[in-house]
Amino acid sequence: MTILFTHPDCVLHNPGPGHPERPERLKAVLAALDHPDFAALDRREAPLATIDQIDRVHDAGFAGALLAKVPVNGMVRLDPDTAVSPRSGTAALRAAGAVVAAVDAVMTGAAANAFCAVRPPGHHAEPDRAMGFCLFNSIAVGAAHAQAVHGVERIAIVDFDVHHGNGTQAMTAGRQNWLYASTRQYPYYPGTGSVREHGPYNNIVNAPLASGAGSAEFRAAFEEAIIPALDRFRPELLMISAGFDAHRRDPLASLELDEDDFAWATEALAGVARRHCGGRIVSLLEGGYDLTALAASAAAHVRVLMNV
Questions:
Q1: Which residue, 20, 52, 226, 261, has fewest beta-carbon neighbours within 10 Å?
Q2: What is the pLDDT of residues 217-226, one digit of tens each?
Q3: Candidate list 13, 124, 163, 164, residue with the active-site label
Q4: Residue 124 is among the residues annotated as catalytic for this protein
């Protein structure tokens, strides 16, 4: 069984007119998942993450300080790309809470896997900084929860967003029992993600793709770098930062993937999960800014999860 975690609060985060990380993104994904093909999804509301859960990966005091910047009215800009409005704090807590709840469901056997259709995204958020449209690093919050509450020793996070998850990499680098593996367009925002970045525990695997790369290069990166690294690591839980902005239609990047490539990658990762962790997968929506491409890609991803 696949559980879909989401919450109406996540639509209410509004980073401002014309911003690419707009509420319509989540509406498009949820509309696609309302198709009869997805009737078997177990749909649940995302809870609010606690400050203690967020503090496992962010610096002490960071969460409280960020929430204190959320305005009662109007908008506050945290950096040129990242802004908060009155419902942003609640949305970010729901996004992180969704991943925590998904980990609980998968680790207790209530579901084989889970997809968290939430926003804002999280993989750029660093221990001490919100950035790149991201407030809290939701995937890392979930990974730390799996470790602290469920005793999971080896956690792998695979990130196929077109932008490198610098925040998740930073949080993984100091944790010997986590693995972070990423494909991304390089060089491109945020500037990290070189193949030379391995971390002090050799637990970082970056497979950068050049502008214009398409299906062949993306699949080769998985087959030659990411899947072998996962098989060597033998994760007990596999987590996915599922960004769909490497799609050829996306306005913020220049890779040439389509929804079939995301379905293929999901199937490949499901194979890893079957071999090493009883099929346990927690996936989280990250980027994707063309609404048509995002909806089709997320649907392709979830369809595979439901059928593995």
A1: 52
A2: 999 999 999 9
A3: 124
A4: yes
